[in-house]
Design brief:
The chain is an all-alpha fold. The protein contains six helices and no strands. The chain folds into two domains: 1-59, no CATH class; 65-113. Helix content is 81%, strand content 0%.
Length: 113
């Protein structure tokens, strides 16, 4: 579990440094996730190193949404004025994410065969 935490937070730290180096063009957490994906795909990072830690973090994921919920309530007056735009952007981004995940899954399945 300690190794998993070290690997996950190490990759997050490297992603944050890369983000700083590119002037925050892409958030460090996104760069870190990409690095973790590449590391797992290339077997540089062994899945068993991070499996227990990843399962523990995803099992408690609801706790990570509490700060975001509090932030939404703090900015509720701003959100109430712009709800049309927020709903539209949410729908468009949801469709884009579903399409991207579906295409990626199909590509990975074809590659596996």
């Amino acid at each position: 579990m300690v190794r998993g935490l070290f690997v996950i937070f190490g990759v997050l730290g490297i992603g944050s440094l890369v983000s700083i180096a590119i002037n925050g063009l892409v958030p460090g957490s996104v760069v870190g996730m990409l690095l973790m994906f590449v590391g797992l795909q290339t077997r540089i990072i062994k899945p068993e190193w991070v499996a227990a830690t990843a399962n523990a973090l995803t099992g408690n994921m609801a706790l990570f949404f509490v700060p975001a919920g509090v932030g939404i309530m703090v900015a509720f007056d701003i959100l109430a004025k712009s709800w049309h735009e927020i709903v539209f952007i949410s729908l468009v981004s949801t469709v884009c994410v579903i399409a991207a995940v579906g295409l990626t899954q199909q590509w990975m399945e074809r590659r596996r065969r």
